[in-house]
Amino acid sequence: MSISWEELNQRQPIAVKMLQNSVRKNRVAHAYLFEGPKGTGKMDMAVYYAKVLLCEQLNGVTPCGNCRNCKRVDSGNHPNVYVLRPEELSIKKHQIQELQEEFSKTAVENNRKIYLIEHADTMTASAANSLLKFLEEPVSLTTAILVTEQLQRILPTIVSRCQNVHFQPLSVKNFENQLQAQEIPLDLALLLARITNNEKEASELAKEEWFAQARSLVIELYEALISLRKDSLLLLQQGFVRTFETKERLQLGLDLLILVFKDMIYIHAEQEQNIVFKEIEQTLKHASNRFSLVKITNCLTIILEAKKRLVSNANMLLVAEQMIIELQEGL
């Protein structure tokens, strides 16, 4: 089913207002830069905006959805809409050159041509310089939409030639509702909405057996820590690193552990409605009565420091073991 302004507005009201005003006032920019965190709907917005600009029976700012152009954009085969994505890990100079050659030709069925560059931050230096020249001398009725999660990696000279459209992180509640609409259980939706902002990633994690195991293991490790059991480190060695076998997965495991300790802070603040691990709420309440807010905050600091060490390519097992030892001493 095709997306709509209404759905996009629920996710990104500021971006929607900006783009709608551009159409209403007939001030469509020759280049846009859609930037913001992963999973905030940037490509959905880019494709929909292309449909708005190409619709043959536009109703104000809303595409009809039924004309030939709308249907072709929806199906991904409109002859005047070009989408560039990285080849392997980067967008190459020859891709930009091929784009320029195509745009030098007369548009097939409509004067306007649109190109979308996904992960624009991956452009090589030569590709970025080629694009810069293209932006400086745009073909008439050409609209470029660059999409990026890392604005700082885009050449400042490119940024200055684009209308910047910032995409805000999705509100947690909004994201929870989206996930529940996909029939993801509430307890899982609460958790996923706090560890990712990407709907596709969340849906995949919800189906992953290892993620269910990871969640159980984090709860088991937490319970071992708060009970001051000395077998916590053994538990880690036997299961923790085996389950979180890559740095990305271990980072995710630490994110889950952070959420458990945050739940204790919510209890201290009498904000039980914000608890994520509701299945162990009584355990969390008992632990919160035994451990001070200072100790809980110190534990969060220890986990966050472990995350930093992982990013700096420290040894996974050593980072995890050191974290557990520090958490045991902190409690």
Automatic annotation (TrEMBL):
Pfam families: DNA_pol3_delta2. Signal peptide: none annotated. Keywords: Nucleotidyltransferase, Transferase. PANTHER family: DNA POLYMERASE III SUBUNIT DELTA, REPLICATION FACTOR C / DNA POLYMERASE III GAMMA-TAU SUBUNIT. It comes from Gottfriedia endophytica. The keyword Metal-binding does not apply. InterPro entries: DNA_pol_HolB, DNA_Rep/Repair_Clamp_Loader, P-loop_NTPase. This is DNA polymerase III subunit delta. It is an enzyme of class 2 (transferase). One of its GO terms (molecular function) is 3'-5' exonuclease activity. It comes from the Bacteria. Its EC number is 2.7.7.7. The keyword S-adenosyl-L-methionine does not apply. The gene is holB. GO terms for biological process: DNA-templated DNA replication.
